[in-house]
Structures
1.
Amino acid sequence: MNKVTRFIRQHQRVRHAVYQTDANIQRAVRRTAMILLSFVSLHVSAMIWLEGMPLWTAIWLTLTTITTVGYGDVSAATPLGQLATIALMYVCGITLMTFLISDYVDFRIARRERIRTGHWDWNMADHILIINSPKYNHEAYFVRLISQIRESGEYPETPIMLLNEAFADGLPDCLRQLGVVHVTGSASRPDDLQRAGAHRARHIVVLSRDEYSTDSDSFTFDVAHRLYSLHISNKVIVECVDDSNRDRLRALDIPVILRPIRSYPEIIVRAMVAPGSEQVIEDMFTHADDHTVRYPVWLEGERWADVVNAVVQASLGTPLAYVTKEGKVIKHPDGDHHVHAQSLIMLVNTEHTPSIRDVQRAIEVHFNKRMENLV
């Protein structure tokens, strides 16, 4: 029965604490503490006046009585002194002490619940703020994105905050362990942006609510416009589903606009660490501007720097890697590395994609000229 009673009381206390504001609880704590201090002062004065105690002895007796420690080394001896102790300490002081502890516990419970449910004002600065949440598999996506941010080397300890309505019941342990906090709310509300410290953030990432729906661009534009009004759009990275909406976002001085590529959150990290590189990466996911092509080119020990030079001087593209005769892909080898390859993997322009023969001829011409110069 005692366990059931304790559970019910704890549940009621949590509900009572959660529905109070921090200001109300703090006012209650201060009010109770001031009243308690008054009774403590009165009892100390009574012990000095009625019992003839020194100041420190009166304080010692008062504190041991109000905390129910009761050493018994000092006590009131006169009837008036005992009556003062009964009235000021036993009836009023200990009761107020109980109220004070209760209010403090309420404050701690309220604080913990507000943090857990994302309603705490973190007063954070120089952090990474991630607005919105993917429609599908948001927990797995955030774990992958934040893990990539931590592993980048630039932000191993940088605070990361999420502003969305996806974790109203609290962040999962896998995100808290990565040093993430959250604010439950919407970036379309100025108060929520204020609580998230958007104006103090180092980077702001605005994710698309639904990476498959162009309607989500409308909400993204509303958030971007609010950030523009706060004069902080220069540190914003925005996801845009429909490419035709990019010009509207650029007009708000948004420096980085990306397609939502959920399987590769590293592109957002690259946009933060090396602005501009995200455009190169994004091109690799489409066939619009640049794309990678594999060309069958047989190489027998030529220096990688010479191979790259041959292709670049012929304006055919940029070699990124080569495939060994055993089928292994070697990415970005050293310039002095001697290549034994069956194929080259190159980044080429979609509108001017060279043929296999063009690449083979460029390499042959380059090395023939080198041989002639050596002779």
Note: The first helix runs from residue 2 to 18.
2.
Amino acid sequence: MTPARAIALFLDMMAAERGAAANTLDAYRRDLNDVSARLSVTGADLMTAQTGDLEAVLAGMRRDGLSPATSARRLSAARRFYRFLLSEGLRGDDPAAPLKGPARGRPLPKIMSEDDVDALFRAAEGLDGPAGVRTRALLEILYAGGLRVSELVGLPLNAFSRAEACIHVTGKGGRERLVPLTDSALEAVAAYREVRDAHLPKPGPKRARAERFLFPSATAAAGHLTREQFARILAALAGAAGLDASKISPHVLRHAFATHLLANGADLRAVQLLLGHADVSTTQIYTHVLEERLRSLVESAHPLARR
């Protein structure tokens, strides 16, 4: 069996049995194709590679300057792949099992201050026309709900619950959650609905596909606004707000949502549910905010600190 065929079978399994999303499958495909290409350079093959061959690949990644996070992700993909081959009887061993991943610290999330978020919203208020109304709705939902960008742009038109105060979001692994929105977000969406038709394609097959989405696109093949299109919208908005566009992204706004909630007293478990994290340990990366708030509290309120 060729490496390409084995990778395709592995991705089929991840989609069917694990419910992996399209973006996750694309990431696995890229990582495994990269490992396969690196093995080919050394004269090895993805299907028959031994532990030593994979160690050489990891060493090559270090020489090429790949970050520890990228190398660790590719090793993780290889481990899953070889466990799949073993379980399917396509190999009798797991060459990736003895490997140790690169040491890496868990970086703190990049966030924005509340003042910077306010600056974004002020810039959005100055935009005109249907595009400006859409930008305000996108920004309001993203910051009010802490959505992933793929969740945001792919929202179906029927994502809103009957009460219209929450949106129904399908996240990673097909996990579903209800996300409450602020009054200002609901008002922004209501205003956007009035001009939504301006973003639909002309009548035809494309329009029928696009009409299913809250944020349709007249040009995107998927029928809805793409992540790349929204990233460009956000970058332009950051520039208009006088912010460094290179430091602003949809995911940074998601981090800001979680961080600002915790800084203002939200419970970690509640933030976990709102973000759609399967495990609270993923959400705990934001606890540095709680630590700073508690330290400030002790320094200002403890009797010994006042001496």
Note: The chain has a mean pLDDT of 85.
3.
Amino acid sequence: MAQSHLLDAPMKLLLESGLYLVATPIGNLGDFSPRGVRTLSACDLILAEDTRVTKRLMGLHGVTGRVVRCDEAATASGLAAALAVLDAGGAVAFCSDAGTPGVSDPGERLAQGVIAAGHRVLAVPGASAALAALTVSGLPSAQFFFAGFAPAKAGARASFLQEVAGIAATLIFYESGPRLADSLAAMVKVLGDRPACVARELTKLYEETRRGRLSELADFYAQSGAPRGEIVVVVGGHSAQAPTRETADLDAILSAALTQHSVKDAAAAIALETGLPRKDVYRRALELIAEMRQAVP
């Protein structure tokens, strides 16, 4: 079926068959786009991460239609419902709780399943918490890396942070209030004391943007308690890391560690301690060993 993607199209569109990933407001309901309203009005099926949230948004704009739950636990059944409509030539929309679908929500798996079945996936863009936080953070935005949610357990979180520690681009994380202080403290330990921004409740009544070094932010939220709402943490890339005593004394620390551990184990332990990228510590360890061997007559 042909589709004209025109802004001045009538309220009831004849949509091309496909899955429409419809971005919804992250707070301010005025951010929902006219095209988003029209798309929901014209779809044969609307999949929602939270049916209550989506139905409320639909009600505000006079949109009616069939709404089916499609959260993490119901992605498989949601995909099956979508494919039944798509196979018949219909159109399906997916809305996450807030923001752009497919980013840390079931939209990713849903889109993959639809693509694998040979159907189209189309974007109806709009609000995104990650991009909103990046733009107000004051940190470099030409290059950025979206890391999503870090694992909840301390060991897994440290390993996760270690994997992104060497990335020069600005880092973007999602976080929850109860975990925020511990997460920021872990970032200080693994990433180093970099410039950062905690953006909370973006576009909402109690929006808060707090900037500073990771250590300052970790101390603040450790003392003030867990904040409410949706939280994005934006952190400067590897080049923004503040010099530390551990960095300056790396050769001395490595030399001592290499007398007791293998190169691999020494590099892993020191990378975790100093927040330096493991590959850089490992490379420096190999250089030190080569220098020591050359010094032996």
Note: The chain is about 45% helix and 15% strand.
4.
Amino acid sequence: MNRRSFAGLVAAGAASVVAAPALTDRAYADSGRRRGPRRKGPIVVGHRGASGYRPEHTLAAYTLAARMGADFIEPDVVITKDGVLVCRHEPEIGGTTDVAERPEFASRKTTKSLDGVPVTGWFAEDFTLAELRTLQAVERLPELRQENTAYDGLWQIPTFEEVLKLREKLSRELGRVIGVYPETKHPTYFREMGNPLEEKLVRLIRRFRLDSPNAPIFIQSFELQNLIDLRTEMRVKAPLVFLATVKGTPYGDTRSYDQLLSRSGMKEWAKYIDGVGPDTKRVISWNSDGTLGKPTSLVADAHANGLTVCPWTVRAENTFLPADYRIGTNPADYGRVLDFFAQLWKTGIDGIFTDNPDLGVLSRELTLGIEAP
């Protein structure tokens, strides 16, 4: 099934959903956790915006995510040469902008060690904001999302401040609170080069009145120590979320993600952190043949430690789905993504990241009976 025909199916399903009353900060229902925005039921997070439909980390992608019903929009935060926080998935910007086609920046191409891994390309920290403003965003996965390439060259790289302003604007326009879910990308990498992210991020969230336990924000990082420092040294009150890949070790840590996400491992750091953001495979394992396996104990273990669980990332294309949830052999076609969402919702997760917020919202309604906003 291709994307256009699948979109028709979603539109038909969404048309039958009765809109819920508009939400405000006061209308949030207590989730039962000690920190975090109070709202009814699990959340849908627009991963890098509605990146299944627009080039990621653009104001257009964030706006579409909110209008599709996402509760939160997720900007990844890196920093420019002149110390401005901007939104890109990684410091390397060659895959998400037209910089490779710009001869005036050809000499900026270089190889750097990014958390111990050599990466070649163009890096945000080697450009001033004014220079980045001359670049245009492009689709990161053109081989899978060819339709998104129609939007190449239309939008610039946004600053984090612009995203915070957009969040407020969308909340007013839509009559409900839109949250923001920023990630500090490679914080040790930037701090070691003398251009740290955290202080500037903290100043901005405080300026926008988001540094409180129940504010509509979650600050996330793959580095546990980064989060602990935010809580203990910078006195951040906003909710914090520890991200985890399916394998490996946080940069600069001697403990593996497996150790840190065991029930006893979480107990050691849960007093500082409010949630876990695992790869979906940590919530439901995949079998050796690529088919979907059984739920793990992660959700129960996290909840036992007072932590929320919001895994990443559900994408509709076959190539990102378990083998038994694919339709046909084309990796770019949509598979049984609503069924995959359903299995994840049933584990008791507190939210989900998705490139397709409309499908996340629809699946939540179909599985849990939570009406679209």
Note: The first helix runs from residue 3 to 15.
